[in-house]
Amino acid sequence: MGGLILYFILxxxxxxxASMNVKKTFNKYARVATTSGMTGAxxxxxxxxxxxxxxxxxxxxxxxxxxxxxxLNKTVALSPDNYHGHSVAGAAVAAHEVGHAIQDxxxxxxxxxxxxxxxxxxxxxxxxxxFIMIGIFSRLSGMFLLGIxxxxxxxxxxxxxxxxxxxxxxxxxxxxxxxxxxxNEEERHAKKVLNAAAMTYVAAAAVAIIxxxxxxxxxxGMQGEE
Length: 226
Description:
Structural class: mainly alpha
Order of helices and strands: HHEEEHHHHH
Distance between the termini: 24 Å
Number of domains: 1
Shape: elongated
Keywords: Membrane, Transmembrane, Transmembrane helix
Number of strands: 3
Number of helices: 7
InterPro entries: Zn_peptidase_2 (IPR007395)
Transmembrane segments: 6-22, 116-137, 143-164, 193-219
Protein name: Zinc metallopeptidase
Oligomer: single chain
Radius of gyration: 21 Å
Strand content: under 5%
């Protein structure tokens, strides 16, 4: 029992620590102004226009680090601080979200695959534990296996998210450097913000994989008992 408690503490801590790190890094460079003096909204608009994405809108969102790109209505939403602010952190986040818009315009394969997986991943996240718990209490390995399969769909979604996010960050850095929107030391600072954000996705994927493997081992044990 002690080992199981320790296990759950560890897998709970991994995403929490990653989230704390991204907030700490963001807050640090949110106090560093860009030499260009552009707001996050202006920077996003500049990159979009430079890539011919005039139809993509830049709007102000709500909440801390609520920044995202919506492929359905072609909108880059930036949290208030990033939308109005002039920081290196805001510039990095704004450019990252525009990176997703560029992926969308170029039919980036991993982005398309992730979009296609959304319904399956949502189904898996909502129902996987229902079937797993039924399988555990009823000792029906078939129900348990169905739960594992559904969970695996969610894990696949998180794995596909990794190249999507890393690629968007790479595109972001290429854009803000080539367009001269950040200079010298600002480039290193922007990379730290983007790397910290990327680690939250890595942490989530790692926890999902570990939990899936644990359930597979339990299922194997159930098969051995039959």
